[in-house]
């Protein structure tokens, strides 16, 4: 099944409807730039958005530029975006598991974006017992949010851990998700935002995988039980041929 939508439009459309899901956007190089484009699309419809940044990759200046390209005042986007940055895995834990649902309700937000969920665990001062406890609490929180109609989009580059025993954390993170969007980008594409046209030079593929049972499966099905027939490829250049949007 081939879609002619630009990658960020496809991910936004698939992720935001219906509500109440846990998604994972991951891949090489420009995945956080793609996430910023998706953020701008979410803000076109959502009353507000909560972002928890554990990778220090949120760029408010880029978000303001994207608003201008859409002929929207930057303050309209920025005033409806609630951001917390975490610099340790313990701060990330608190940001997600302590009072998040109440805060979302207070600002009428129904989508959470989490940058770099596992990045901060590459620290030999953090015992694996703590890592397991934190990820367990995070999973429980995300499943609870999902049950209340709130969607969470996890965004991660492919990890390169210094602590090799922690490479399995990526598998743990993917197991949390109902749906995964894998960004593949040819080496010849740089993914740079064009100042002249206002469009992203994304010659990319988005590969879609959906868990057959979901992140809150209680029947012991393995995370690799995915609906392989629902793999979707967006061919390079399709966005440039069919869309003048970002």
Work out the radius of gyration.
17 Å
Oligomer: single chain
Strand content: 15-25%
The largest β sheet comes out as: 7 strands, mixed
Name of the CATH first level of the domain at 19-178 and 192-198: Alpha Beta
Globally, the shape reads globular
Classified in CATH, the superfamily of the domain at 19-178 and 192-198 is: P-loop containing nucleotide triphosphate hydrolases
Describe the structure.
The protein has a domain at 19-178 and 192-198: 3-Layer(aba) Sandwich (Rossmann fold), CATH 3.40.50.300. α1 packs across α2 (31-45). Strands 3-2-4-5-1-6-7 form a seven-stranded mixed beta sheet, sandwiched between helices. β4, α7 and β5 form a beta-alpha-beta unit. By secondary structure, the chain is α/β, with parallel strands linked by helices. Helix content is 36%, strand content 16%. The chain is built from nine helices and seven strands; from the N terminus they run αβαβααβααβαβαββα. Residues 188-203 and 213-246 have low confidence and may be disordered.
